[in-house]
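Translate sequence into structure tokens.
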Amino acid sequence: MFTTANFLQYAQWSGIATLVFAAIAVLAFILKWNIRFRVVGTTGFMLVLTGGLFALSIVPLSRAVIPGAVRYTLVYDNGTTQAVIATSPKITPTQLEATLRQAASNLFSSGRSGTRVDDKLTVRARTIVHPEPGISVPVYLGDVKRSLVSRQNSPMTVEIYTDNFAQLPKPTA
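Result follows.
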């Protein structure tokens, strides 16, 4: 996975290439080459590319890793205060708590806008069970609420629906 240090190095090399293309563009105009406008376009593209790489070197791209968390899939996200993740029906309550914490950390963004009434991000976890062939029933296993205002030092409230775990299929030996 790329880190911010990698992107900073790529931005430096891209910046050098941008300066080279700019020098070629100036030279192309002085010598009236036929490709002078193409070189100007290439220089502009390199400028945008360098800016993007530099921006990626500033913003951290890391994901939270919570011990005990299992793989989940984001199935719904309204972009503001609600999200739903899907997990395996074989998940345990302790794994679910770690997974909910990890999902809440990964889905936090300063771009999410809460309402004045509800400035909390709510992530709900669900799984699908099949009580009969051809019938699928979603079962909500828990949720986590966290602040949309602060990433650091914002407490997460995790609620596990233990009664819904009884609906999950029992593991066979």
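Note: The first strand starts at residue 73 and ends at 77.
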